[in-house]
Amino acid sequence: MVSGYQAVSGLTIRSLEREDLPAVLEIERLSHSHPWSEAVFLDCFRSNYRLWALVREDVLVGFAIVSHLHDEAHLLNICVHPDVRRCGAGRYLLRHTLAQALRDDAVCMILEVRESNDPAASLYLSEGFEEIGRRPDYYPAGQGREAARVLALTFS
Ligand SMILES: CC(C)(COP(=O)(O)OP(=O)(O)OC[C@H]1O[C@@H](n2cnc3c(N)ncnc32)[C@H](O)[C@@H]1OP(=O)(O)O)[C@@H](O)C(=O)NCCC(=O)NCCS
């Protein structure tokens, strides 16, 4: 469901700014085996991208990045600081990105998730995403490559 989501106590969401990048890079480094570089984040500051900052007491504790192409929203990255996980922050941020994508006239959101990333997949599936395919060798991995599950949620 993409409307009527509730905030999590103490957390707010605002637009992500370039000034947030040091904190973004730190959370990214703590969260992924193969983190995005600063250059990749900088390349996301485009008119067809939506960048969201999850904030607690003025400190960045998470972020989400969505690109829009035609009527499709693509969730490219979502991360919550390890110290803030498992208290509803990720779901709050995801629901915000979905609601905003709907506002931006997207008809669906798609994303890729590593086959081994059960926490994230569990979050997406519990929000109504469905698996629509797989991309073999999509991600770099410790040894070789890892496949992605492709998930989609159609707004209706
Ligand atoms: C995925 C992520 C954003 C979830 O953030 P979070 O704040 O912990 O999520 P929430 O507390 O809102 O939990 C929402 C749901 O996610 C799932 N989930 C989260 N962590 C989980 C874990 N360790 N094991 C299993 N399920 C988990 C559960 O379904 C949970 O619902 P529940 O609390 O009712 O069981 C966070 O784990 C993260 O930043 N991971 C690293 C980055 C990443 O993998 N991003 C996704 C890339 S596709």
Would you write up a description of this structure?
It is found in: Cytoplasm. This is [Ribosomal protein bS18]-alanine N-acetyltransferase. It is an enzyme of class 2 (transferase). The protein is an alpha+beta fold and 156 residues long. It has a single domain (11-154), classed as Aminopeptidase (3-Layer(aba) Sandwich), CATH 3.40.630. The chain has four helices and seven strands; from the N terminus they run βααβββαβαββ. A seven-stranded mixed beta sheet has the order 1-2-3-4-5-7-6, sandwiched between helices. Strand 2 and strand 3 (59-69) form a beta hairpin. Coenzyme A is lined by residues 31, 78-80, 85-91, 113, 117-120, 122-123, 126. Coenzyme A binds at residues 31, 78-80, 85-91, 113, 117-120, 122-123, 126.
What's this entry about, in short?
One of its GO terms (cellular component) is cytoplasm. With 156 residues, this protein is of the alpha+beta class.
Q: Which structural traits does this protein have?
A:
alpha+beta, transferase, 156 residues, globular, RimI, Aminopeptidase, 7-stranded mixed β-sheet, binds coenzyme A, cytoplasm, [Ribosomal protein bS18]-alanine N-acetyltransferase, 4 helices, ribonucleoprotein
Helix and strand topology:
Blueprint (H helix, E strand, L loop, with lengths): L10 E5 L5 H11 L6 H5 L6 E8 L2 E11 L2 E9 L8 H15 L4 E7 L3 H9 L3 E11 L4 E10 L2
Parallel strand pairs: 4-5
Antiparallel strand pairs: 1-2, 2-3, 3-4, 5-7, 6-7
Bound molecules: coenzyme A.
Coenzyme A (COA) binds next to strand 4, helix 3 and helix 4.
